[in-house]
Amino acid sequence: MSHEGKRGMSWRGWLLLVVALASMAVMWTTTVLLLVGLLPTLVTLISERDHEKSATLAMGPLNLWGVMPFVISLWREGQSVSSMRDIVSDPLNLVMMYGAAGIGWAIYRIIPLVVVTVSMRQAEVNAKAQEEYLKTLKEMWGEDVAGD
After folding, report:
1. Is residue 42 part of a domain?
2. Closest Cα partner for 113 from 103, 121, 101, 123?
3. Eight-class DSSP state of 142
4. Domain that holds residue 97
5. pLDDT by residue (tens digit) across 54-88?
6. Cα separations in angstroms, 74 against 28, 50, 71, 110, 142
7. What radius of gyration, in Å, describes the C-alpha atoms of the chain?
8. C-alpha 83, offset from chain centre
9. Is position 126 within any domain?
10. What pLDDT sits at residue 146?
11. What is the DSSP letter of 9?
12. Which pLDDT tens digit goes with each residue over 4-37?
């Protein structure tokens, strides 16, 4: 039998899974804070149809950037349940976490438009330069050089 179509998790994958689960069990308040704070990224990761996960890659780091100050604050306060609850229940904290994800989403949506606009403008400039060059050639060599 061929195993070409089947892909199992490597020993590194299993090791990473065991370490992640152990860390989540030991630092469960941090895990809860991360789950709540990274909710926009998790939803995008699950719902995104793009194989390359471009939206997740654009939004995820900024979402994490918005959550990390609260994770550090939780660690400084001893990872207590009350500290985690205070952080998660403060609407301003959620606005900061989700706002950072929103900035990542905006970047994901705006950058392609900027690239297309700049590319079109560059194509227009190149076309105009080609027309002027053809005009110069016609002046130097006559109308026959254009091949019309």
Report:
1. yes
2. 121
3. -
4. 11-109
5. 999 999 999 999 999 999 999 999 999 999 999 99
6. 12, 34, 5, 34, 78
7. 27
8. 29
9. no
10. 67
11. P
12. 555 778 888 888 889 888 888 888 999 999 999 9
Q: How does DSSP assign 22-81, residue by residue?
A: HHHHHTHHHHHHHHHHTHHHHHHHHH---TT-HHHHHHHHHHHHHHHHHHHHHHHTTS-H
Q: In 3D, which of 103, 37, 112, 21 has the Cα closest to residue 74?
A: 37
Query: How many helices, marked H, and strands, marked E, lie in the chain?
Result: 6, 0
Residue 128 has pLDDT above 60, yes or no: yes
**Domains contained in the chain, number:** 1
| 97: its two tokens | 């976490």
Flag whether 55 is in a domain: yes
Instruction: Report if pTM > 0.85.
Output: no
Size (the chain), residues: 148
Q: Is 59 contained in some domain? A: yes
Identify residue 17 by its one-letter amino acid code. L
Collapsing DSSP to helix, strand or coil, 140 comes out as helix
CA distance from start to end of the chain: 65
| Residue 148 to residue 44: CA distance in whole angstroms | 54
- What is the spatial distance between Cα 19 and Cα 27, in angstroms, rounded to a whole number? 12
CA 72 from centre of chain: 22
